[in-house]
Amino acid sequence: MANERQFKLRTHFIATRGVREYRETIPSLIKSSDQVLEIGCEWGTTTAILAQHCGAVIGTDISPDCIARARQLHPDIRFEVLDAFDVRSALGFGHPFTKIYVDLSGFSGYRALLDVISLLTMYATIFQPEAIVIKSGALKQFATLCRPWRSLSALAQSNDHSETATEDEAPVG
Ligand SMILES: C[S@@+](CC[C@H](N)C(=O)[O-])C[C@H]1O[C@@H](n2cnc3c(N)ncnc32)[C@H](O)[C@@H]1O
After folding, report:
1. What are the CA-CA distances from residue 67 to residues 7, 41, 71, 113, 132 (Å)?
2. Residue 26 three-state SS
3. What is the largest distance, in Å, between two alpha-carbon atoms of the chain?
4. What are the structural domain ranges in the chain?
5. Is pTM, for the whole model, over 0.70?
6. Residue 116, H or E segment
7. Is the CB of 66 under 6 A from ligand 1?
8. Per-residue CA distances from 172 to 28, 45, 73, 110 (Å)
9. What is the DSSP string of 46-115?
């Protein structure tokens, strides 16, 4: 039975469609204090953009060939081979990641939605980052159709709350 002590995720999930939207999030979301993990970095193009905005970034990919090429193209950035589902190895990097970027091939279609949600939940639970940005057109479409139900009394309460809200309560920094 759910209660007040139940563990609740605080991470925001930001679903983007296509690489343009995925990269467009960087200047508005990433701060110089952020430690960022990119999962599915291929040759490191997005990792290199992230590196311009954050304090530290690691680009990862399941393909050793991609990682070798990424290291060649961006020698100042750290790249590591990682299977996205091997979260234990991601923990081994020893960084308290504050933002995570996910761009895995095969993750855009509706049939991959359960895998997408399970991966997001895993990383949100273990690293508790402020936000995870994912390139998944299916998740974006699904999220657009989702509305959390709120009763009239809950709505009235949240209106009262928003009148007294401070900047600290803004969703993602
Ligand atoms: C579209 S590319 C990434 C492009 C890159 N993010 C960019 O912005 O330039 C998708 C990458 O996902 C990687 N990938 C696929 N399955 C993976 C997995 N299970 N774990 C890690 N990387 C994976 C592929 O090797 C491929 O390089």
Report:
1. 36, 8, 6, 26, 22
2. helix
3. 58
4. 12-164
5. yes
6. helix 113-127
7. yes
8. 10, 24, 32, 27
9. HHHHHHHHSSEEEEEES-HHHHHHHHHH-TTSEEEE--TT-HHHHHTT----SEEEE--TT-SSGGGHHH
- Supply 157's token pair: 């309460």
Which of 37, 42, 47, 135 gets mutated to test ligand 1 (max ligand atoms within 8 A of its CB)? 42
Q: Tens-of-pLDDT digits for all 173 residues of the chain? A: 667 788 899 999 999 999 999 999 999 999 999 999 999 999 999 999 999 999 999 999 999 999 999 999 999 999 999 999 999 999 999 999 999 999 999 887 889 999 999 999 999 999 999 999 999 999 999 999 999 898 888 888 877 776 655 444 444 54
In CATH terms, the fold of domain 12-164 is: Rossmann fold (3.40.50)
* Ligand 1 center–CA 45 separation, angstroms: 11
